[in-house]
Amino acid sequence: MAAEARLGTTEWMTPARFGGLGVWPRHLLLLGAMAGLLLWLCRADMLAIIDIWARTGAFHHCFLIPPIIGWLVWQRRSVLAMLTPEYAMSGVLLAGVGALLWLAGAAAYVALFRQAGLVIAGQGLVIALLGVPVARALAFPLVFALFLIPAGSEFEPILQLVTADIAVALLHGVGTPAVLEGVFIETPAGLFRVAEACSGTAFLLAMAAYAMLVAAMCFTRWRRRILFLAAAMLAALLTNGIRAFGIMELANRTSIHNPIVQDHVLYGWLLFALVLGLLMAGASRWFDRDPDAPPADARTLQGVGRGESGGRVVVPALLLALLLPRLWLVATAPVEAQIPPPVAPSVPGWHVLPGSFAGEWRPHFAGATWIGQWRYARGAATVDLAVVLFDRQEEGRELVGFGQGAVAPEDVWAHMANAAAPANGQGEWLRGPGGRARYVASWYLVGGAVTGNRVDAKLAAVRARLTGGGHGAAAILLSAPGGEDAARASGDFLRAAGSVQEMADRARRMR
Length: 511
Hints:
Layout: H1 2-13, H2 23-41, H3 43-55, H4 65-75, H5 77-81, H6 89-108, H7 111-130, H8 132-137, H9 139-144, H10 156-173, E1 179-181, E2 184-187, E3 190-193, H11 201-218, H12 222-253, H13 259-262, H14 264-283, H15 311-331, E4 351-352, E5 370-378, E6 381-390, E7 414-419, E8 426-431, E9 437-446, E10 449-451, H16 454-466, E11 473-481, H17 484-497, H18 500-507
Antiparallel strand pairs: 1-2, 2-3, 4-5, 5-6, 6-11, 7-8, 8-9, 9-10, 9-11
Helix pairs in contact: 2-7, 3-7, 6-7, 6-15, 6-16, 7-15, 10-12, 11-12, 12-14
């Protein structure tokens, strides 16, 4: 104990050979300076993260993450005082991974990648400038920092379907008639739609952060931690399904205008709080960590990182890792030309119906430079063609992004099911007012690639941007009302047009 006390005070107070500062102050000053540089370089992404926390209900809990991290670090202050900070090249590698992820996000206009890159680069700074022993003492706070990233809303479509399945199963279980079509549930009280806000994403993300904290603070055995996390996630999923079932069943037994039905989000959070309390009460008998036990043992951490590179190598390497992505984007920035509006491409055997298009369905591509849409006819068959052009892509106006595509979020039309995909394309069925069905086939044209896969389109955009290929992109959407006859009409139209690329070139007046 005396040796540990001497290490905790002597290492902190001993002047360093450079600048007369103690070891800890020098490393903390460097960490503060590098963190300030990182936040300045990524200031737009940092502000975007905070804005998402404030605007999106699924991430309101993220405002609690920074103070929790501060509290976790403060808990470890006695352990940290016994350690000597050092430099670690492994942290530079992690910061480089974060920087590359940020670069990929900047090239693909994916805010989530940039935001994740910012957080991961910050974790790398801590490891690089404080060393592996200190990083091991701070292992859980560093991992917990991943909850700062506003990720998870990408699973909303899947969670909508899961919630709908659970709700319908429970409705059937109590004898209430219910018909499920995608995210639509038809009951005697009316037609319900499991919207994005009702997907349970907020429950699941908040529960994940809370369960991770409880698992670290209340358990020592990994098996119990994993079981608690799994039980918490399952409880969140089931709770949201039960909430949706309860709202619909209440509407069927009383009225769809019942105040509880109208304020179902508030009552959902009350149900979530109840389930959280029951979960903790049920798991408390297996808590095996002493609340007064230190979070780490300094004696097992001493010397773990010895032999790693010194500051004269680590600091310049960090600067290079943080600045190189910005320099690359500047060096490969293309000069974009203005593009004219598209024209209706000629298709043998089909003719454009006279007058401007005034259809009931329109695709949603916010920020597009031009959207041309025409209705073609051949005999009794009709097909709607939409050509979407972007002269450049940037934040808020990407070809592939949230809400971009055949339907807008919270539109009267909604995705119902996937359909047979045409060559290199994507097929889907939409459901509109009155239960009307519509077939839509979509293609993305980016960097010379033609694909219906959103991920492939993003990757093509990254390749084009990082090699100076430009920001421009296009989308082609064929649509027709009806059932299988609509899909056949769209296929006939595409065969007559020749190919998607030829159709896009004619619309863009390239041939």
